[in-house]
Amino acid sequence: AQSVTQLGSHVSVSEGALVLLRCNYSSSVPPYLFWYVQYPNQGLQLLLKYTTGATLVKGINGFEAEFKKSETSFHLTKPSAHMSDAAEYFCAVTRNTGGFKTIFGAGTRLFVKA
Amino acid sequence: EAGVTQFPSHSVIEKGQTVTLRCDPISGHDNLYWYRRVMGKEIKFLLHFVKESKQDESGMPNNRFLAERTGGTYSTLKVQPAELEDSGVYFCASSQPIGKREVAGELFFGEGSRLTVL
């Protein structure tokens, strides 16, 4: 069975500081990994994804994540936080079981202080 | 191109009443998913349609929930009768047909339908 664990339901950083949102997954087969972001009063939108190939993937708005198979992790980072990054972030795992089924973590709400 | 649209955006009903949520996926997306998020918890999978067929409905909580996708276009999710624990945000998502590896598994979400059962 798949599962996704996001460490920290809330993360607070100062503007300009490093953003690190942690995600660990369990999957019996190589997964596809995603980070989605939800801004207030909006639906989730894709931030970045890992399917195959390079393990460091870059997404929108300066975010990136690294797939580490040995650690079963897919942590999300951004070198310098901006006020507009305040949102809720969801890590997700997908695998093809005859149809793609995506499992989400509980989400991490990012607060950015001026 | 229109995104995934959901209606209503917010519904407040009393316990025992019926509510029907609607989702219009992106045109051409064969895959349609329903998810639910209860406050503060994970986004939980409910079911998956491929065109008009239910591919996986393992996440449906009980038989008070009925999902349909007639003609393989829009989908409805009916809750009848609603209970207090059904409150939450119901998300619909769609994705490309299976086999398009480039976008394998990427979901396009609607803004959600917030259901409050009093």
Brief overview:
The complex is a heterodimer of chains A (114) and B (118). With 114 residues, chain A is mainly β.
Uncertain parts of chain B: none
End-to-end gap of chain B: 37 Å
| Main beta-sheet strand count, sense and barrel state of chain B | 7 strands, mixed
The radius of gyration computed from the alpha-carbon positions of chain B, rounded to a whole number of angstroms, is 14 Å
Count helical runs of chain B. 0
Instruction: Report the portion of residues of chain B in β strands.
Output: over 45%
- Quaternary structure classification: heterodimer
Rg result of chain A:
14 Å
What class do helices, strands and sheet pairing of chain B give? mainly beta
Average pLDDT of chain A works out at: 91
Percent of sequence in beta strands of chain A = over 45%
Task: Walk me through the structure.
The complex is a heterodimer of chains A (114) and B (118). Chain A contains no helices and eleven strands. Chain A is mostly beta strands and 114 residues long. In chain A, the strands form two sheets. In chain A, strands 2, 4, 5, 9, 10 and 11 form a six-stranded mixed sheet that branches. In chain A, a hairpin with a 4-residue loop joins β7 and β8. The mean pLDDT of chain A is 91. Chain B is mainly beta and 118 residues long. Chain B contains no helices and eleven strands. In chain B, the strands form two sheets. In chain B, strands 2, 4, 5, 6, 9, 10 and 11 form a seven-stranded mixed sheet that branches. In chain B, strands 1-3-8-7 form a four-stranded antiparallel sheet, with no helix packed on it. In chain B, a hairpin with a 2-residue loop joins β5 and β6 (53-56). Chain B is globular and about 40 Å long. The model of chain B has no long low-confidence stretch (mean pLDDT 91). The A-B interface holds A 4, 9, 32, 34, 36, 41-46, 49, 51, 90, 94-107 and B 3-4, 31, 33, 35, 40-45, 48, 50, 55-56, 91, 93, 95, 98, 101, 104-112.
